[in-house]
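Recap quiz, item 2
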Amino acid sequence: MFTQELDFKTTDLNTFPFPFRSDNYRYSNDLRKLEDTNLVTITPEYELQVRAKRRLLDEQPEVRYQSFPHTMEMQWEFLEMVFEMAVEKYPQHFELIKNGDEWTFKNNILKEEQTFTFGDPSTLPYEPYDFAGRHFHQDFVLMVNREDNFYLEIGQVSYAALFSAHWNTGMSFDEIHGPVPFVSRNGDNLIDRVRKFLLGINPGEPWTRINWNLMANRWDVNYETMDVWEPQRSLITPENAGKLVRLRVEEQKFYRMSRSNAILFVLNTQFLPLEDLQLRQEWFDLTYSVLQDIPEAMAEYKGIAPYLPQSVEYLRRVDEKLKNQALQTQEG
Amino acid sequence: MYNSPVLFFESVTLTEKLSPKTHFVKAAIICDEAYKEEAQQLQAQLYDTPSDTLIFENPADVRKFIVEQKMGTCFYIVANWDDAVTIFSTAVEEGVSEEELQVKTIGEKRKYVYCMKCFTPSEIDTQAKQVQCGCGAHLNVGPFYSKVRKGYIGYPFVPEAEGVM
Ligand code: HEM
Ligand SMILES: [Zn+2]
């Protein structure tokens, strides 16, 4: 399958959202205020990731994109927001020309141009949300606020792990998180707390957090393909873990939409092979320490239990080698 | 609405034994002819709360019966699975919430698994942990239900890889 041959990793480490801030990891309400509130980012892998995302959307439209018919107005709100952000941050790459309701969007990186009538979906090749999302490498999920919960009413999801737009469509925030052993360090259930926190998010003041996982020689880990990737996990050994196991990180952003009041959930997924952690000693040390201390329920949920020990053993061997080298340098 | 309540295997409204819910001014009981006795037992426990009973025959009568009830009525359903589903969904369509409902089904319940390979729901044995879908995929039956997809999640697996033949 083509989709797994896509072999990319973050090459500009300054753009890698490294997830760990201390030497052990537990679930918590780890939302922080987002500083750069513009969600558009152009990384060296932008084009590769956008093209792979579009291929997935075309090959598996039902898996990767879901929307309810009543969401059309929210879709235009999303399109306007991301296109304006793109133009504001990267005027050299993107242009938006508005002539009344006749709009033209230009993506100069991909050398594409589309003229359409704002508010008239028949003037676009895809639904407005789908169309706009195809110009950026992130996943976009719209959670509509009804009473005191949020419901997934639009999803364009190609990269997020264990996230099926098809399966999760129409579910509440609580239903979506049903599979997560979502308890804090002192055993509190976090679902209610986090949902209440999201209810308090205001337009113009987005929040962010980083989710992480590992992956074994594969970047698409979804429920739809579980029969394929589950058995592959047993191929990992301490000898090949450096190359085959990747730290898989989702930088998540949460925006309150001002017109629809929905929460836009944006996920930027990036990958780094374990062997590249050595490029930043601090990242290596934190990851080595965190992975040694993952609670069983979390490892099971994340699907990493079968190759976590091999990954830790790989890191232990590297650590030993690095320490010996340092010692020799000192002695020499 | 896509997120309206539906009656499924582990619905919160399902109970083994009907018992009066508090804070309601009236009880409306809808039951299959065969389970009239259950309705009478519930009535006996209601003491001075007024109640009405409808013997289920067709959805149109159910709708009329529900619409005629006043605010603050709690609905009790006693029926076989298929009739209970019909009565339940009619009630929901008429704006009755799960807080205002209690359901006792008699006989076999029905359970559906949603195949993550071919995206279709199919009925399964309620005890089954692993099943094979019509498309050929082997599925582990998960504990999560989707109202939109109308089934419990079925995670695909390869039997040989799990040591199950
Ligand atoms: C509002 C938008 C959100 C959506 C649509 C969403 C969606 C999801 C989905 C689909 C999963 C995977 C569930 C599965 O395994 O089937 C997940 C996992 C998770 N979510 Fe969320 N989420 C949202 C917000 C949040 C927030 C605000 C937090 C925390 C503050 C959070 C914390 C988590 C955690 C800890 C996991 C487990 C991930 C892991 O350990 O790999 N989520 N979420
Ligand atoms: Zn199937």
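The beta strands of chain A are 32-33, 65-67, 94-99, 102-107, 112-117, 139-146, 149-156, 207-216, 245-256, 263-273.
Residues 174 and 192 of chain A are 8 Å apart (CA to CA).
End of item.
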